[in-house]
Specification:
Chain lengths: ~300, ~260
Amino acid sequence: MTAVKEESGQEDPGAMQDRGDGYVPSQRRIDRERYKRTRARRATSIAALSTLVTGVVLYLVVVNAPGWPRTKETFFNGRYAREAFPKVLEGLWLNVRLLLICGVAVLVLGMLIAIARTLRGPVFFPLRALAAAYTDFFRGLPLIINLMIVVLGVPALRLQGITVDPVLLGGTALTLTYSAYVAEVFRAGIESVHPSQRAAARALGLTNRQALRYVVLPQAVRRQVPPLLNDLVSLQKDTGLVSIGGAIDAVRAADIIVGRSLNYTPYIVAGLVFVALTIPMTRFTDWVTARMDRQRAQGGTL
Amino acid sequence: MIDIPEGSSPVLRMEAVRKTFGDTVVLRDVDLEVAPHTVTALIGASGSGKSTLLRCANLLEDVDDGAIWLDGEEITDPRTDQDAVRRRIGVVFQAYNLFPHMTVLENITLAPRRVHGVDRAEAERYGRELLERLGLGAKAGEYPDRLSGGQQQRAAIVRALAVRPRLLLLDEITAALDPELVGEVLAVVRDLKGDGMTMVLATHEMGFARDVADQVCFLEGGVVLERGTAEQVFGDPQQERTRQFLRRIVEAGRL
């Protein structure tokens, strides 16, 4: 987190002096850059000071709160933190596996739904309608309700051959909801490809399907990488919700200790572990987005 | 070097074509006949219907009324296989419309491979041969964004030629180019005429149209107001409106 962005994309005037072309920075340039450096130093000190003041104020407000000693004992207890940490990590492995498997399933299903929504022709009407209904329904349905229906409702049917494993059912529920989100991301990508691209493809004699496959989809997917990663980060933390079915993931592992000790520190531990897991992913998303922006900036017309 | 199919009956024929967008009549009663190995230039102000006429000929737009024949086959019949029709027509767009995620060579070989079933080696061989001929031999592996406008437009022409089309439609292909780059693209079109390629082009380059066209059509408000050889239309225009248009072009220094 940089408080001050370096604005100098220019060379240092000192290093500029001898470049073979006899260029000597003018006094004007030297003055100008000295002024910019002073400003930058000032901005850095202001940012540092303001951060310090904010930190101190927040600290004082929290510590002087009437319930602080008790809160500290219940939420920030070192002993329980040490006890919970390994168990939570063990549970986290389930979250990671869920993320990987659901992530792949979500991308595939989301893409299929998005394609179904863009199909033309009367034959495909039911498919189009079904895909539209699917996205409308699962995007609107709160994930937690979806999870309860699938994880608790499906086993209650007592169907032969249908799993009652809360991990599998929870994963299914996550996939159902996230496929709807991701389908919309893909659809937006498909629609963002300029119609002239499709026209050019059709003018070459490509069928609608070929135009989609070779021209539209590759461009759509490339453009949607940042929002897709965003949804994956979101999926990563929502894997914690499978705990409501009793699957022992990081959240549930914390829950067990809380239930026994009536101390909430394990929740804080689990929360921090999730944050630690999503940060690299978020940074990766930022990096990909920035890289793509740079490429597009060089790219030109399309 | 470019394969041109033989034949003497009109390649493209339009009869009483009408096209509207909402309340705007874009084409009104348009007749057109394009003989093999000839170049037809469509001239006229922006919005006169030149581009729409080309888009209709390629079935990128449905006509409201009238009929269009390609090599004697009525392509406006709703029972025609539109993809099969487009396979025989090459189109070059004003904005090039190259596929930005593919290299120049991939742009060019896409249709031969996926639509015409040409194997990859042969498609690439012919693609490279055409690129070489249009002076783009070194650009086969580049992405379109790395090319200048003139190079992009020449690559787009190669893409259209790579399927050995019966007819080439050129929609204001120099309109987006710097004056310096216009020449290199027009030189390519002149070469193609030398090969006997049948072409219909919408253009604002009057000097070029006069030079290269066998037939010139002046469009105004979706109507072909005047047509004839280049000498007739540019040298001795019959319609007052045509004279006015040409006068303005001369004043703008473009003829």
